[in-house]
Write a structure and sequence with these properties.
Layout lengths: L3 E6 L7 H14 L4 E6 L14 H15 L7 E4 L5 H10 L4 H5 L2 H9 L6 H4 L1 H11 L4 E4 L4 H18 L7 E4 L28 H9 L20 H9 L4 H9 L5 H27 L2 H30 L3
Helix pairs in contact: 2-12, 3-7, 3-13, 7-8, 9-12, 10-12
The protein binds iron/sulfur cluster (SF4).
């Protein structure tokens, strides 16, 4: 029997290059080795309560991008978190074995409190417990993560160990599978590529939109004039060359350092590489977008298949706890 992978992502709508290189590309590869469960975690999106009016649209756009990128619903289970309500039941159960002190020390919780002190809700504190429920409800052994998510997974493992210690071996302790490209720098050159920071390039952009977007990117701040030698290692466009133009990467670095290459031409070349690489994705996306019912059918079928596993896990958990 194949090991099972679980991964979830908030419904952020149209996906960007950071999502693609950091996660989706890896999701597609994993399908051949593992039994994969991919979840659009809409309940997690409620912790900040913004954008709920856009939720259904965002779920649809995200599912469209995942499918166009190569997630195959015949190989993998792809569904929406709230369509399998057993996750809320397991969340309540696991919250009983999770000390509050473990949750209050989570660095992302502390950050969120600082960012939004007016909305420190119960769901925000319990976010890692819901994440643990997502993983364990489907008895996943492996979770693909970036470096920044490692502490969350470690906490999930601690919660599982505590449950199993109390009630007997029931839930598997999930292991991290580091992604090949855990962090893609955004066009601001400072932070991880992210929609909320508006430093991203959407996969579904047109070729013209992509070029326009790439031209807005910062480059090496030391290059004030065309003749100034560059430092490619600090430039987000150079970072993208690593993914989209690897054979030319050394040449790009060398000609940047000697100022033979100008930033405008370098950006135009980068946009052309991105457009070329995304051409099959964009064609497939346009085909899928023309049949919206297909996306709903995939998500409904995914929820049915996920429910079969979820019901079995909940039954075992309840039996172990004396609830059945
Ligand atoms: Fe970046 Fe290219 Fe400009 Fe060098 S030439 S700073 S790699 S955009």
């Amino acid at each position: 029997m194949k090991s099972r992978v679980f991964s979830g992502a908030r419904p952020t709508g149209r996906q960007h290059l950071g999502n693609y290189l950091g996660a989706i590309q890896n999701y597609v590869k994993l399908q051949d080795q593992y039994d994969c469960v991919y979840c659009i975690v809409d309940i997690h999106a409620l912790t900040t309560l913004d954008n709920t009016r856009e939720l259904q649209k965002n779920i649809h756009e995200m599912a469209l991008d995942w499918l166009a990128a190569g997630i195959d619903p015949k190989k993998s289970i792809m569904f929406v978190q709230s369509h399998v309500p057993e996750v809320c039941e397991l969340h309540t159960i696991l919250s009983m074995v999770t000390p509050l002190s473990w949750l209050l020390r989570v660095p992302t919780f502390k950050e969120k409190v600082k960012q939004n002190p007016g909305n420190v809700n119960y769901g925000l504190v319990g976010y890692p417990v819901l994440m643990t429920s997502d993983i364990t409800l489907y008895k996943a052994d492996v979770v693909p993560v970036g470096e920044d998510q490692l502490p969350h997974l470690e906490l999930a493992r601690e919660i599982v160990r505590r449950f199993n210690d109390h009630f007997g071996e029931t839930l598997p302790e999930p292991k991290a599978q580091m992604t090949a490209f855990p962090m893609v720098v955004g066009l601001d050159g400072k932070s991880k590529m992210s929609k909320s920071l508006n430093n991203h390039i959407e996969l579904a952009m047109t070729e013209e939109e992509t070029l326009k977007r790439v031209m807005t990117s910062v480059t090496d701040p030391a290059r004030q004039f065309r003749k100034d030698p560059g430092h490619p290692e600090v430039c987000p466009i150079y970072a993208l060359h690593k993914y989209f133009n690897p054979l030319q990467q050394e040449n790009v670095a060398a000609t940047c350092r000697t100022a033979e290459r100008g930033c405008v031409d370098c950006k135009k070349a980068m946009a052309a590489e991105i457009n070329e690489a995304l051409k099959p994705f964009r064609e497939r996306r346009a085909e899928l977008a023309a049949k919206p019912k297909y996306i709903d059918d995939v998500l409904n079928d995914g929820a049915v298949r996920a429910s079969v596993i979820a019901r079995q896990t909940i039954k075992e958990v309840k039996q172990k706890m004396g609830l059945l």
